[in-house]
Amino acid sequence: MRGFFNKQGFTLIELMIVVAIVAFLSMVSVPSFMRYMAKAKRTEAYMNLGAIYTAEKMHWAEHGCYTEQLCGTNGAGWKPENYSGGGSKERFYYTYGFAQGKEGEHYFTGKLGASIKALPNAKADQSGFLAIAAADIDGDGKLDVIGINDKHEIVILQDDLAD
User: Fold this and answer.
1) Can you state the percent helix, strand and coil of the chain, rounding each to 5?
2) Domain-by-domain residue ranges, the chain?
3) Strands 154-158 and 95-97
């Protein structure tokens, strides 16, 4: 019977050390993971801004001018994939487009809900355009604002990923 009660196990100290190590590793890895997720969201913006660029160039080729109307009659023919009215139910994160006009035609509000007030520099006219995407991709209250112009230059107007 003596051998039955003399089994070895982990002490409380050993278990506390393991918990402390796991907590430390989590503390180190979570910020890296969050930064990775923010970069993935920014990649969505690059892809959609590239699509807006193509739509604007096609509109210019057909009509001789750029337009602030991305979708609808006389629009450039672009809207985010699976667009369903804007806001938290969307599958895309950024708000895209131009500050003037109507939701679903001139701008599209993404899941993160950035206001069109984040798009004041966006414009389109005879000579060129600057389409903007904005979102708080890491939840710190600071917007990530990215634009694309008629020369296919992507400009970061406000960097939410900068430390």
Assistant:
1) 35, 15, 50
2) 2-158
3) unpaired
